[in-house]
Design a protein that fits this description.
183 residues, 9% helix, YmcC-like fold
């Protein structure tokens, strides 16, 4: 009987982790929420802000590579509205297993013809500004459009309960790292 109770508890825990909202804590969206990042190469700050755009739909301003996006959750995937093709596109598959690769093609500066790979679901992100390490982060590796010379996002990390904590973009002068300074 005790083995049955333990087995049921393990199945229940695994099922809870697989619920559609299970990965949303990697990017907790709520109106008024914001994240501020420091540009480690050139200084200055950039901020991602969240506003409500409708029932279950949010507007992200300042998201890496896109000035403004309308987004919504579908299961464990954050979808973005494609204004050109008038459809929802999977932007961040936060519930996908490590190794999953997919394409994103949005009419946004750095999200057109991008290959995205869930590189890790257990990344550790060292933040020298906050002097802390975020454990258990999801790391997305991005391969920008090959026709985009010397530009594009190459990586973005999301920490549980925090949201985006780091991103790297390619510039003509080399990689530019952005790290969280406050949320």
């Amino acid at each position: 009987m005790r083995r049955l109770v333990v087995a049921v508890a393990l199945v229940a825990a695994a099922s809870a982790a697989a619920l559609p909202g299970g990965s949303r804590h990697y990017f907790p969206l709520a109106p008024g929420k914001e994240w501020t990042f420091e540009n480690r190469q050139y200084g200055g700050e950039e901020t991602i802000t969240v506003a409500r755009a409708g029932a279950g739909v949010y507007r992200l301003d300042g998201f890496p590579g896109a000035q403004s996006l309308r987004v919504r959750w579908l299961g464990q995937t954050l979808q973005a509205w494609d204004t050109k093709d008038r459809r929802w596109e999977g932007l961040l598959r936060l519930g996908a297993p490590a190794g999953t690769t997919y394409s994103v093609d949005l009419p946004q500066p750095l999200w057109s013809n991008v290959r995205v790979t869930v590189a890790s679901r257990r990344a550790a992100v060292n933040n020298p500004v906050l002097r802390r390490t975020f454990s258990g982060a999801i790391r997305f590796a991005l391969r920008p459009d090959p026709d985009l010379a010397d530009a594009g996002l190459t990586g973005i990390w999301f920490a549980p309960g925090i949201g985006p904590v780091r991103w790297i973009e390619q510039s003509i002068a080399g990689p530019v790292e952005h790290v969280l300074t406050g949320n």
